[in-house]
Amino acid sequence: MTKFEELVSIVKKLRSPEGCDWDKEQTHESLMPYLLEEVYEVIEAIERKDFDLLKEELGDLLLHVIFQADLAADKSKFNIKDSIDFVNKKLISRHPHIFDDENNKSWQKGDWESQKQREKKRDSILDGVPTSLPALLKSRRIQEKAASVGFDWDNNSQVLKKVDEEIEELKDAIDNKVGIEDELGDVLFTIVNLSRHLNIDPEKSLRLSTKKFSKRFKMIEKELNKKDIKIKDLSLEQLDKIWEENKKLN
Description:
The protein is an all-alpha fold. The protein has twelve helices and no strands. It folds into three domains: 3-93, Helix Hairpins (Orthogonal Bundle); 153-200; 203-249, no CATH class.
């Protein structure tokens, strides 16, 4: 028995009448929060470049894949071998220049998304992006799909100009107290577009900034606690001065 087959067998045992009460109660839907959590734990391990942790988290994620497939097998929908067979065939069909004819150009820019659109009989090249994706990631994927068929700016300068335009429109909306939410969304959308052109993951970039802010804020709290000063008792000007001093140190 391979390690993979052993994992499949363990999951089946846990879900059997003689198995674990918790595992027996689970459904496709009940496992969704845990599945999502495991995905983010994999991402965190990658960002930390912690390969021991990545090894562990990939195993946890694989467990969820097997679990979902076993639930489907109970309903006679499909099993894990069907999923593996499906992805094997898909990878081969979408890479004909690797597995068939090296002169086949269907892999080139634009054709990948177009091929998926034909395979899945989608109405639009933009279809297929999960609705539950985080907003920043979803907007990036939508932009990538549009760009794959040539709907994109040529260079960073054009994107930066568009960012400036959207910020000016947001300022006008704030002044006029009309359409602020829409204009703010447009600014965020163009910032994501800029991140794509700079080849930067907007989710990762925002997480890093949030982490940096949290670190500096906690340092200020710690510093003020030592002096027995409550942060709420300081003016914004005083806090800003402390903030700028901490920025120089971090």
